[in-house]
Input
Amino acid sequence: MTRLKRAQYIEKRLAQLFPETPIPLQHEDAYTLLIAVLLSARCTDERVNKVTPILFARAKTPKAMVKLSVSEIDKIVRSCGLAPRKAQAIYDLSKIIVEKHAGQVPDSFADLEALPGVGHKTASVVMSQAFQQPAFPVDTHIHRLAQQWELTSGESVEQTEKDLKKLFAPESWGKLHLRFIYFGRQCCPSRQCDGLRCVICKECFPDRRRPKKYHKA
Output
């Protein structure tokens, strides 16, 4: 099976397994999604979803957020890890959104990535899920599965993103990104599948005998 044929098969199989693709992070709009994604770095979605209702009850707009102090934000998001850095970034980016973007989350990669605490992956999630623009955010699950399924050389997250974008149509990226994540969490956790056990690994590589070593994100 060629890489392209395998990609087509995987896309179809993931759609069968996960026809619905709700965004795991609770949010109401582009701003609350941006904050939730920022908080999810090195933190589980479950934990973020426990913290954000408390934070957004205090401030769910950039204008309201800058009325809080960094220490107040820090106390609320403390359990998410890296709290001081995240709290400062939340305050700073909110101030920039108010002052430079009329209180609205910008809808371009350049402007999003210029915000404190917002890297390419976070910007990609917001562009894809909030603004329905073609983007393929690559997290650790996607990076691992793309290597495991031999859809990429996997030498870097950046290379994985480029390779996946070549294999799949832009209009599919938003849902496919989430389907990869759901599959990685529910069907192929990193500690349970070595490239031999999960359903897609077995279907695509029936003759695979030895586990592969994968590059970490």
The domain at 3-21+136-204 is CATH 1.10.1670.10 (Endonuclease Iii, domain 2). The two ends are 26 Å apart (CA to CA). The chain has two domains: 3-21+136-204, 30-130. The longest helix spans residues 83-100.
